[in-house]
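#onboarding

Welcome to the new folks! Below is a worked example of what a typical request in this channel looks like: someone posts a single protein sequence, and someone else replies with the predicted structure as tokens. Don't worry about understanding the tokens yet, we'll cover that in week two.

Example request:
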Amino acid sequence: MSAEATNPEAHAEVRPELRRRGRTRLDLRRLGRAALLGPTSRDRLPDAIGHVAEAHRAHHPDADLSILRRAYLLAETSHRGQMRKSGEPYITHPLAVTLILAELGAETTTLTASLLHDTVEDTDVTLDQVREEFGAEVCFIVDGVTKVEKIDYGAAAEPETFRKMLVATGNDVRVMSIKLADRLHNMRTLGVMRPEKQERIAKVTRDVLIPLAERLGVQALKTELEDLVFAILHPEEYEHTRALIAAHAGEADPLPAIADSVRAVLREAGVTAEVVVRPRHFVSVHRISRSRGELRGSDFGRILVLVGENADCYAVLGELHTCFTPVVSEFKDFIAVPKFNLYQSLHTAVAVPEGYVAEVIVRTRQMHRVAEAGVVALGNPYATGEPADCDEERVDPTRPGWLSRLLDWQQSAPDPDTFWTVLRAELAQDREITVYREDGSTSGTMSLPAGASCIDAAYAQHGEAAHRCIGARVNGRLTSLSSPLSDGDTVQLLLAQDASSGPAADWLDHARTPAARIAISSWLQSHPDGAGPAAAAPRAPLSVVGARGGGGNAVADLPDATVRLAGCCTPVPPDAVAGFLVRGGAVTVHRVHCPAVAQMRSVGRTAVAVHWRATADCRVTLLAESFGRPHLLADLTEAIAREGVEVVSATVEPPVEQRVRHSYTLQLPDATGLAALMRAMRDVPGVYDVRRA
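Example response:
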């Protein structure tokens, strides 16, 4: 069977706040034995799921509980006679998993699938029966959970198990919600297992499931899993932390008094808010003690302020920073910039006159629900669509970017060890950035881990075609592929025409995503002789013949002065221009926005008024950047000739990383044709940029 078991009271002290206030603890042992007596009358819910119904109605007052009754009756009948390793009836496990999800606010479909999540795997119930009795949605989720559970959790099987889990989660995140609750209950009841098996399960939970819970935003499950893993893998440190918390419990706690002060401040300011003290969980206390040394009373918890609207969060922040001394370094705004796992809150810390520093979290009640339950709080992502059949695959519309990346690269992971290693490295990333493709549209966005480079963006957008990538433009500027990206950057990736091009070995030094690293490594292994692009050599100085010769159509208001068009900005009619007297009595003409204009003025050069002659012809220097290919120069000069433009001089630099730079000094019969000429040059195959020198 898929679920592990032991005493249900184990580790109950770790997360008492998971239970709703005022509700007695669910005695799963008693309910399981009661379940053996058989189903109750069909006109009411069985007593065994009364707590589930109560928790569900607290979040969904109008929920139809009849489907839960039918699901429980099927699960109890199917599992009847099966026992957990602790000797308890097996039905206690799906009941406990469902109660965990009900407490988090899961919708009815998820709870129904949770009650049935082990029936297809461990009993004679079939998917067809589930579909017929409970519909396609429940069938789809149960099938996803069943696929995840079909492989034993042996050391060699873990990578393949979690590969299946990722695929199932990508189809519907509710599958992972049930899996996380399933693992939490098994971790709570792990005491009857052999120590070595406890340790193995705890390590897998630490390496994969806790990071997945973090990324899905299910903080309530993540924190309790952390504490349970902490107790198994680090028993001495766990006992030390437990002793610290116990010692603090016997001392005066300053946080309630600070919370009272915060309430008074907000009441006087007319801000309606709920202020509560949130004790830290074990792992959080342990981390604080390691970073700060000796703990003070205010270090054992944080103050949580809940308000109604987003604007109220900032009103609370203003009052706190006005009436208390803020610790500026502790301020973080996750409302304006939410975390990638949906988390939103304001974090700050304030010093009070008694000498304590209290951390304060400010959020709306809706933010609080999402912070605790994450994707569980989002409900059914398919509520407005057609239900899928169990045998179909679909893409969850709420799928986060990190999950899409994992699903993409897991298909190409060459072996289980590589998959396992890279999976843990990817899950260790705790921040994401969003970059935009060159069109800047919302549909053209890519989610990448913080620290990703243009190489990662190339493989995210083009897959294996990114082997041919030779450069990128970030926010309009040409840059190297190794350049790191920042949140909000716009990226244009440049691919070579030569299909035999391949990545260089040093790309691995700058690739952060698993997809990029696996693709690059595979290519390098299949091309041991190294057919990648040559190392970049420094370009020779650009030689532009005739760029500074003559003043073209520019006329200076200075008799007999020689007029020269500046090579730095190559002005042409009808550009607004400025002239300056330089050595030798010559006048140089710049566009008014050229940086050299400010420099000329700063060194005291004499300004000279200049204007354009009435004639329309002009001379200009253009730079063209392109991929190297045969007949490129001929095609460019032909495009220039078709526009009726004379080539005064041309220079072509040696190729660097398959890129070629050309410079042309051109005589145009009419300055108004410059834009059309540049468009014609850009349309030549292989040319990716044309600009004035």
